[in-house]
Write the structure tokens for this entry.
Amino acid sequence: MALKKAEPPSDDRRWKMINATMRRHGYHRSALIEVLHTVQDVFGYLENEALAYVAESLRLPPSVVYGVATFYHFFTLKPKGEHACVVCTGTACYIKGAGDIIEAVKENYGIEPGETSEDGRFSLLTARCVGACSLAPAVVYDGEVAGYQSPEDVINTIGEWTENDA
Ligand code: FES
């Protein structure tokens, strides 16, 4: 009897990209590390919700998935900042100026991808493709994908976080 497949948490296209990796490996448990790489590529870090979904899909105990996610240094868990700004640096976004966006954040806040602002308000991360290439350059603000972002747009959004969240 075929087992019921886990339902993706939302209709966000990024879940489809994660599903594609799992399907390619026949939903086999041995694909866990590869699937986690895909999660990180599309989300910029390993979201708790994504870890739970992967565990359910591959029929692994969540503790095993969390264990692997925390063991390997190349995986990034949920960032420490109150907000997360994930800049897509995939080819389409890079060509359209993702590098300038990262430079602008660096200049304004003095942080590199993977770091959190001194006041803890936001973390800057990068992803390899967030599934919105036609909207390049794309940036994901607290899980919401935004397209056609200029460095000014990004600085303004981060400014709203850092100024209004007192
Ligand atoms: S490369 Fe950025 S969304 Fe695909």
